[in-house]
Amino acid sequence: MTSPEKIWTAGLIVIGDEILSGRTQDKNIAQVASWLQVQGIRLAEVRVVPDVESRIVAAVNDLRAAFDYLFTTGGIGPTHDDITVDAVAAALGVPVVIHPDARALLERYYANKGGLNEGRLRMARVPEGSELILNRMSGAPGIRRGNLFLMAGVPHITAGMLDALTGQLEGGAPLLTETIGCWVAESEVADLLRRVEAAHETCQIGSYPFFREGRVGANFVVRSTSAEDLKSCCDSLTDGLATHGHDFTPGGI
Amino acid sequence: MTSPEKIWTAGLIVIGDEILSGRTQDKNIAQVASWLQVQGIRLAEVRVVPDVESRIVAAVNDLRAAFDYLFTTGGIGPTHDDITVDAVAAALGVPVVIHPDARALLERYYANKGGLNEGRLRMARVPEGSELILNRMSGAPGIRRGNLFLMAGVPHITAGMLDALTGQLEGGAPLLTETIGCWVAESEVADLLRRVEAAHETCQIGSYPFFREGRVGANFVVRSTSAEDLKSCCDSLTDGLATHGHDFTPGGI
């Protein structure tokens, strides 16, 4: 038995025309999602919006009302298209201020790189009331304001900021997953999957078909916050697959 | 001079717990975005939502009201977690029906693979009033209902469905882009970028920094629907970079 427990949720806003034009393949959704899982927080929704203030403001206000935490990636650099700080400040109804610690960080970072200029100083701007998220990869910090986290768009800098936040956020029981692979068309075992999931109410089963080496197969991903229920559900599923005459591969194919 | 022209826009809803858990790296956002560019349609917003009917319904109703076209990927397979058709039908307020042509397609496809069963027949279900989007990769079709397009989640099947739709949708002038690469910290030329963009009102300049081989650089992406304005903006930008003493690389680095 697991006791009922609060499920902590997060929203993510990916900001940037480069994702919406198809020029850049987003990597932050998967990265933030995986990191949140380990913190015991579920990524509940992602929105990708352009570099347009009104669109960022609308997304921030929708998602911060809906979930416990809100993350953004992108738009906190030095150039004219970096408008995330202004948009978030507008959404919160607070002014944008220069954070003195961010200014000091940037002064040190750029001391032997030509010094601070107007563009670089933009990266010290924060919505009033914010703290910094340190970032060892580049001078510019991320920004935390309560349950709102503004992070870089460049994936390895985002990674450094997530690293700085690891273990800092309250979360619930991490969602546990087990994957079972099988060389079977998912359509052959759809009824089995439905029945096994229905019999294990704390578990969800996802079915992810693939085509490889000229054959069809599927990975069945079972998720639960209870290790005991997860095991019982996986056992029922593998028993069912065996009864239907299908070999399965623990860990997935 | 370009004449004022309608800008055609699309929303995309990526449906699936596997993206939100970080298990699967989404590839459909970039794929749909690039395809839309060629059709003269701008991807204006993406939402990633879980396999939960109420959340899909909300996203469908928000985005179909906001944009000219709406695409979804994921959740149209044979298993219990494939609920896109039901959610979209609920959003539109129409019943789910079996499409006779889809049923016939699936009967042929599965004739020598064990025949239709309950799970496979799920893939013939459509919101009433829909047409099919044919798919050479697997038996199951995508679904079109007016300006709403329901596509597969598996990227190479999505690709086949996009291929079937190529040239079928009304769009505007394709957005043209030119990329100029430069081994410069974007923070050094932020003011130049801002001034050049301001001087070319039909153009947007995006700045995408990178770190490679131990050096910083950036690609500047200039976008416009006017080839003439695009060239003029790129010329101003490369002149400015040269004036600042920076080499540039047409086509990007």
UniProtKB/TrEMBL annotation, chains A, B:
Domain MoaB/Mog: 11-173
InterPro entries found in the cross-reference section: CinA, FLAD1_M, MoaB/Mog-like_dom_sf, MoaB/Mog_dom
Highest taxon in the source lineage: Bacteria
SUPFAM superfamilies assigned: Molybdenum cofactor biosynthesis proteins (SSF53218)
Pfam families assigned: FLAD1_M, MoCF_biosynth
The protein, known as: Nucleotide-utilizing enzyme
